[in-house]
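Hello Y.,

Per our agreement to keep a running log of every chain we model this quarter, I'm adding this entry. I've kept the format consistent with earlier entries: sequence first, then predicted structure.
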Amino acid sequence: MANLTGIANYDYSLEKIFNEAEDFLPLLGTDYVELYVGNAKQAAYYYKTAFGFQSMAYAGLETGVRDRTSYVLRQGKIRLVLTTPLHSDHPIAEHIRKHGDAVRVIALEVPDAVDAFEQTVSRGAQPYFEPKEEIDAHGRVIRSGIHTYGDTVHIFVERKDYNGVFLPGYEAHESDYAPEPTGLKFIDHMVGNVGWGEMNKWAAFYAQVMGFANLISFDDKDISTEYSALMSKVMTNGNGRIKFPINEPAQGKKKSQIEEFIEFFESPGCQHIAVATDDIVFTVSEMRRRGVEFLHVPGTYYDTVADRVGEIQEDLMRLKELGIMVDRDEEGYLLQIFTRPVEDRPTMFFEIIQRKGAKSFGKGNFQALFESIEEEQRKRGTL
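Predicted structure for the entry above:
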């Protein structure tokens, strides 16, 4: 866990921390997301088949890497790295034993990985690894890393002097098996689940250590049903390319989805990855055809959508058939849908989102979404 003593001892409020957040850490975007998985070859087949990712790069015994195998997949601007250890005593194996297949690394592209490390560590982040230069025939990459919530880490990637396929140690990977893409473009946001009373601490971490600002907050009145609730703070960097909602449980009659996640993940961690598309009807239709399972939205949800969101371009009946939800804010509207967990543990899942001007996160859909998740919890006996 990151060292937050430099934050916890401040005598001013979170509001002041957020107000004083400054964009001292230039972030160019999400460079890649790395999952530690039990079988990278099979996981790559799943994400190619179901989500439409394409083979991009590979590292393993054939490339001189002796302790692990990694497959890099790409779709749009999204790079997904799937990594498996080659021996049972490898630290990656311990991560998988504890968490199951899960996000370990959220890598962020920066113009200067040395400066990013020094800036964040000087403000209280616990180092994951110090800046290191990696070189091959295609140039050099500099990377550094810090710890965040649970076992999740951020790696800063400086690649302006590199023109290889991915990183040194990787080779281009082509496959005869190449299902068509499903229209995914980029990562919209990534959500972290933390424990009781930890949301403000980690929101303060992103404000003070990384210069993020609090974009929007939701309390248990915003996100609740008769049985469960959660609270959330959405943290964003200055250019808005990186958004990290931080969720914590709230008091309710029964166990919330956040508590269920932490019980089975066995620590705080990345709950879901929201990926953007320009045509959610096509994307979801194609993913359903390929076997991706989505949450069931109560049919009564669509009875009031037209009154609540007004005119939209999409066919509402088609959205209902697919289970796609709609919400509107002052800037426009958005369409979103959530997969069921993509692992056997009820932990990580994906959100598919299309923004038609809206900058918000679907507050008007929270009630229906929670009811859908609670129904899944009932089936699992974990509510």
